[in-house]
Amino acid sequence: NLSASVDLFTGFRRGADINAARATTDAADASLIDAKYQQRLATTNTFFDALAARQLLAVREASVRRAEEQLKISINKLSAGSATRSDSLRSRVTLGTAQLQLLQAQSQVATTEAALARTIGVTGRVQAQDDSAFYRMTPPVDSAALRDEAVQRSPSVQAALASSRSAAAALKSAHSGYWPTLSLNGNTGWSGNSGNSYHLYNQRQVSLQLSWSLFNRFSREQQIAIQQANLDVASANAADLGRSVETTLTGQIASLEAARAGIGIAQTSVVAAEEDLRVVQERYRLGAATIVDVLTSQEALNQAEVDALAARFNYLRAKAQIEALLGRSL
Question: Which of 3, 99, 179, 324 is the most buried (most CB within 10 A)?
């Protein structure tokens, strides 16, 4: 026996289901792109954590060297009778503090490099390699154009909009229950009445069937109400996600420009702190400044170097966040 059936008219349900399936595919594609960029952002932040920890370690090592040099100067001045024992003790305390900060920086390096190794699927630790490209700043961005692009092309927004289109198509499919359906059916079969007879009798049948459900206990209305609610939720989620992306992008653009300005200010502060320390050390050597002045200048230089490091990585992180929102590189 062989039978076949084809729907000639489904009350527009078939077209709505196709549209819903296409929209669902578009949503899945956009979600995949968004997932890739979010994973890229997470990996980038972990990489920057490891790189920043390694550079902070270099800053702490430099502060330890300065503290050791200052301790030698204090001891020599104490031996020469031109300084008090308090100077050498203060220098020792400063050196101990710098050494403790160095140990903390070493621990941070180990933690971040182990996290980077786990992120990329490697056992142990992975050291982040520095690159001169990290220090090339992009031209000032057009914030209005970026916001428009984010709202229209952001992978997360595209996925939400596609889900909304799928819900609208599902609602249209639910309305098809009010329409009749028309189907064409065909059947052919062969049968025999004896195990020793190979003569088979053929029977064929073709039918055109019209079906129209006039009342089905309000199940159509219930399904329409459910799909309408799904559409309302999907539309609201898409609109809210668009506003969320725009808000986040506005904040990240502001952070990017603030970090851009902060880098220049922090670099200037480092140069000024280095010169100030040089002058104060010379004055201390000549007896015109106290050990407190020297140690204060040293701490100011240490903090200026840390601030410069933080400003540079704030810029890189804000840039990476914007790229994840846009779904492309700047």
Answer: 324
Distance (Å, rounded) from C-alpha 1 to C-alpha 281? 104
**What does each of the 330 residues of the chain score in pLDDT, given as a tens digit?**
899 999 888 878 888 889 889 999 988 998 898 888 889 889 989 999 999 999 899 888 988 988 888 888 788 777 776 666 777 788 888 889 889 989 999 999 999 999 999 998 888 899 888 888 777 777 777 778 888 878 777 888 888 889 998 999 999 888 888 888 899 999 998 877 666 666 778 889 999 888 888 887 888 889 899 989 999 999 999 888 888 888 888 888 888 888 888 888 988 999 999 898 888 888 887 777 777 888 888 888 888 989 888 888 888 888 888 888 887 777
H or E stretch including 183?
Answer: strand 181-191
Tokens for 145, please give them.
């154009």
CA angle at residue 210 from 204 to 214, to 5 degrees? 150
- What is the residue whose two structure tokens read 């956009």? 30
Range list of H helices, 120-218 = 143-153, 155-175
Q: What is the largest CA-CA distance in the chain?
A: 130
Q: Are 87 and 291 in contact (CB under 8 A)?
A: yes
CA–CA dist 256, 252 (Å, integer): 6
Give which of 8, 11, 20 is closest to 230, Cα–Cα.
20
**Measured between alpha carbons, how far is residue 320 from residues 44, 250, 306 in Å?**
7, 14, 21
Which tokens hold the place of 234? 């999907």
Q: Quote the tokens at residue 245.
A: 């992306």
